[in-house]
Amino acid sequence: MRKNTLLAATILCGSLALSTAPVSAQAQVLSESPSTSIGGKGPHLPHPPGWYNAPSPDAPQAPGVNAADIPPGPPAEPSEATPAVAQQSSNPAHDDWPAYGRDSNATRSSPLDQITPDNVSQLKEAFVYHTGSKPGPGEANKWAAETTPIKVGDGLYMCSAMNDMMRLDPATGKEVWHFKAGVKYESIPYTAACKAVTYYTSSTVPEGQPCHTRILEGTLDMRLIEVDAETGKRCEAFGYHGEVNLMKGMGESVPGFVSMTAPVPVVNGAIITNQEVLDGQRRWAPSGVIRGYDAETGRFLWAWDVNRPNEHGEPKEGEHYSRGTPNSWAAMTGDNELGLVYVPTGNSAADYYSAMRSDKENAVSSAVVALDVKTGTPRWVFQTVHKDVWDYDIGSQATLTDLPAEDGSGTVPALLMPTKRGQTFVLDRRTGKPILPVEERPAPLDTDVPGDPRSPTQPWSVGMPRLGFPPLKESDMWGMTPIDELYCRLLFKKSKYEGEFTAPEISHPWIEYPGYNGGSDWGSIAYDAKSGILIANWNNTPMRDQLVHRTKADALGLLPIDSPHFNPKAGGAEGNGAMADSPYGILVTPFWNKFTGLMCNKPPYGMITAIDMHAHKVLWQHPLGSARANGPWGLPTYMPLTIGTPNNGGPLITASGLVFVGATTDNLIHAFDIKTGKEVWNAVLPGGGQATPMTYEYKGKQYVAIMAGGHHFMMTPVSDALVVYALPDKN
Q1: Consecutive H or E run containing 483
Q2: pTM exceeding the 0.90 threshold for the entire prediction
Q3: 731 domain residue, yes or no
Q4: Residue ranges under compositional bias (Polar residues) (predicted)?
């Protein structure tokens, strides 16, 4: 038997290599830039009568977009937040996990050390909690909870995939309260997901009074909701009976077009909101505007709208935020001392065609943007991809730390920004200047797309080890049999490929590698500041793409979500997209053997890496994910071979020297010794572990929790189970 025949039998269905993250940009129009006026109006292409009838960008919002029927009120002018008190996440208690990334620096690193590499094999289920959120009768499966609970004091708080919020007893999982958010199925965008809730301590409500401590979230139907952390009842003084309508000022839309899946940060009393705008739809999609709201009252503070940078108020009556601008769907990170929030952005609407983007959009797309939380004004911008037409939007949350200065004079406040490219940029978070070297390297320019030239250079983080492999070559093609391998070699030879920045083509397919689910995505990284060790799990999943003229896109049924003829089965946030209002649609498929469902590039497809941030060198690296639940034709092999599967969800580090991570398509949670990389424990989950685990201590006992919600696109089993582990009691 050929060596790779046995290995092939262990690999997952190739379609799993697609991104599971709701991406960022959208679709486009003609070769003109959008108006930089607040309306962002653009030209419309002619279509066959009665076929393409998507609404005008200036049309009013469809019924149901303002989910709670919150009265709009007059447009608000910019203002400042109510002065805040110190929050739990700024200096977490030893036994708590008070924020999505544990602390306000998003380190995903815990000081707990009760569970160690020596005793982790004894972990047992302490309890399982069911959120009650799963597809109902007749509902297509769009579920992927992606939830990380938070723990403060004697409360374990979390959200369901459909934005219900709940408080649990940390020792037993008994439900203390359950807030019903009332999100409807129609409001699910690409994925029903809620990554985390946010814990907030009021500066105006005295301790012991309702809503002194609060739990808040942004929802799939674009509401900002605050409830009392003790009772789960609405904070009536916040917004309109506890809610703020985030569709205000967004203009034309329909349910599911715009949503929130990431936790909102609170920085110096300001709640900062971003939103996912469904990919692949229209050039004139709803805005990627970033906004600030008062954490005490829900009052509007400011807006950062890319195409109207000097206007920070809400749009005037009859107007809306500029459309099609780069949006941010990833978790943001705040710095209270510097008064900044770090916004990871995507590209403008129409991921694969950039001719219609304004200069202002090109300057801030696929970048880290540091906004002043008092005014919404950008302080600095660092771009990770120039004129992105590969969907290399930033899905990860930035991690903050202090690194030793190169001249030995002390420390530098740093920001670590992992990307889908596998490039990790290390920046001075005060200025956005690279701390470790970044080079602008030549990039391919050849393209047959008229009027859409590529950037001659792209940035490379040469001071950091890359989370990726060398460029593809024909000898990397792979298959279950020699015939399969030959098929993949032929696909490779028929495709345009000139490296990572191969320019899009109309005449024939091009290979996008590392792909829009390559490198690090929404799971982000973990960093232990004491040891200087960074842990990252990442993907190695190329795609094969092709632009098609508008007439062919129409013939294929590629229409946007707000068209009366929209067919979600024809294309959506991942895969084929309408890119309506533009000259082209996009066809996106995994680079795979469509007959076996196996990827054409040789495994591994998922990896985990430990990097010494003091020496900037890899400590260890190996494939992540086994073949037990994966195989050709989507059939599980039940073979416990570590071959490296696509993964989504991040890692956590404990002070005892353990790394916990789910993420893989083998439906396991894994534990590794951080010194050696050896896997020292795993457990089978009731659903896919596409979420980031967390750990906490309660009454002297350490627990490890992971949401085993599964993921519809990763094709892992969907569940509503939060699984919590602990060591057995000594008695």
Answers
A1: helix 482-494
A2: yes
A3: no
A4: 104-114
- For residue 432, tell me if it sits in a domain: yes
Domain of residue 136 covers 3-726
What's the total number of domains in the chain?
1
How many helices (H) and strands (E) are present in the chain, helices listed first?
Answer: 4, 43
What is the number of residues in the chain? 731
Whether 391 sits among the annotated catalytic residues: the reply is yes
Q: Which residues contact 32 (CB under 8 A, 6 or more apart)?
A: 42, 43, 356
- Report the pLDDT value the prediction gives residue 406, as an integer from 0 to 100: 80
- DSSP secondary structure letter of residue 203: S
Q: Which residue has the tokens 């129609």?
A: 186
Residues 508-543: b if buried by 16+ CB within 10 A, e if exposed: ebbbbbbbbbbbbbbbbbbbbeebbbbbbbbbbbbb
Residue pair 9/480 in contact (Cβ under 8 Å)? The answer is: yes
Q: What angle do CA 590, 593, 596 make, to 5 degrees?
A: 120
Supply the pLDDT for residue 20. 29
Annotated active-site residue in 103, 164, 305, 391? 391
* Omega before residue 604 within 30° of 0, cis: yes
Residues of the chain with pLDDT under 70: 1-52, 570-573, 731
Q: Please state the φ and ψ torsions of residue 327, each to the nearest 5 degrees.
A: -110, 165
52: left (phi over 0), alpha (psi -120 to 50) or beta: beta
> 4: how many CB neighbours lie within 10 A of its CB?
18
Within 10 angstroms of residue 94's Cβ, the number of other Cβ atoms is 10
